[in-house]
Amino acid sequence: MTPADRRLLRQLIIAVLIKFIVLTALWWLFVRDASVTVDAERIADRITATTSTQGAGK
């Protein structure tokens, strides 16, 4: 492995670590406490709802 390869590998590892830290911090700040309530009745209505067919009559 040449010195240039080692330097490139080190830079790539540092870049990936920084991105991982930033993504983890963003998740921790904004997504961690978010939750979605699931209501079985609403889901059933959504699944059985008819969809419109725009442009089908042309």
Which SSEs are present, and which pair or pack?
Elements: H1 3-31, H2 40-48
Question: In a few lines, what is going on in this structure?
Answer:
This protein is mostly helical and 58 residues long. The protein contains 2 helices and no strands.
Name its key features.
single chain, 58 residues, mainly alpha
Question: Would you kindly provide a written description of the structure presented here, covering whatever features stand out?
Answer:
This protein has helices at residues 3-31, 40-48. It has 58 residues and is mainly α. It has one domain. The mean pLDDT is 88. The chain crosses the membrane at residues 12-30. InterPro entries: CydP.
- The overall number of domains is 1
Spatial separation of the terminal alpha carbons = 64 Å
Which structural class best describes the helix and strand composition?
A: mainly alpha
| Amount of beta strand | under 5%
Rounded to the nearest angstrom, the radius of gyration is 24 Å
Major pleated sheet = none
Uncertain regions: pLDDT < 50 for 5+ in a row? none
**Helical segment count:** 2
Rounded average pLDDT = 88
Order of helices and strands: HH
- Helicity, in percent? 55-70%
Shape: elongated
Q: How many strand units?
A: 0
